Amino acid sequence: MKQTRLGKAGPQTAVIGLGCMGMSGVYGPSDRAESIATIHAALEAGVTLLDTGDFYGMGHNEMLISEALKSAPPSRRDAAILSVKFGGMRDPKGNFIAFDGRPVAVKNALAYTLQRLGVEHIDIYRPARLDANVPVEDTVGAIREMIEAGYVRHVGLSEVGAETIRKAAAVHPVCDLQIEYSLISRGIEEAILPACRELGIGITAYGVLSRGLISGHWNKDAAQSNDWRNNSPRFQQGNVERNLALVDALRKIADAKGASVAQIAIAWVLAQGDDIVPVIGARRRDRLTESLGALDVKLSKEDLAAIESAVPKGAAAGDRYEAVQMAHLDSEKK
């Protein structure tokens, strides 16, 4: 698989990564054996970046990845790049209750992550959100100390704005910013993406299929009761119908290219620059295979223009998160 570097300071990685969050119950029940098989299949296909968070399933996701890595061939296991988000605090019911970016919390969270993953270091360690009560310089400074101690290789960021990115990069080189980016979530194009490119910071794009909304597979009648998308603005009645109309328009382009809707959506993100690595949230091998097929989809200038016409910037109905979560996103501050 084609390789790229995550920013000027980061590691070499395959041009598509695997996001493992969905394997820990966020979108309803998932099959543990199939999840592990999907991680194995991704590694076998040449995918190297595995993305997780210590709060995904309250540690479940890290332990799942650990199990998968231990049973993978040594060459594949050694090639894996572990990207871990930290700081999200949850209660026993799974509700998010706070974010903690204090230096002491950074080191404590890292200690537990190393244990759950069964590794001696984390390749990319990143705060999942900006802690409004802690200067980002302090949070990144703590990660820098862990790099100096040998427990972390690189600093990453997640969902922060251009000003915060600059402050963090002044403390230690940042290899990548993980942030939502897709055909219907293009907010980074105005200020965040230019700032990252100026500083030599890569983008690991999550939500490339907008949590399945523009995958061409999502069916509102098949949603699980414990699927968090039930509360997501873009999946709400009045919004979802308008958004699925965009999918129908995209499907016509996909059919003409002999590709799936998901492959067109992923290929569009890939076409936005070699410094952008889509992180695909496949929970099953068939979805992984489909997503990797996007690498074979070549979009011409005419194709890109047709996609832009079918799904214009700002065409999505509804915010990407609920209002209370949007208010906590540094990346959304103007």
UniProtKB/TrEMBL annotation:
InterPro entries for the chain: Aldo-Keto_reductase, NAD(P)_OxRdtase_dom_sf, NADP_OxRdtase_dom
Gene3D superfamilies attached to this UniProt entry: NADP-dependent oxidoreductase domain
GO terms for cellular component: cytoplasm
All copies of domain NADP-dependent oxidoreductase, residue ranges: 16-310
PROSITE patterns per UniProt: PROKAR_LIPOPROTEIN
Record-linked Pfam families: Aldo_ket_red
Molecular function terms from GO: oxidoreductase activity
Keywords: Oxidoreductase
Record-given protein name: Aldo/keto reductase
Native species: Caballeronia hypogeia
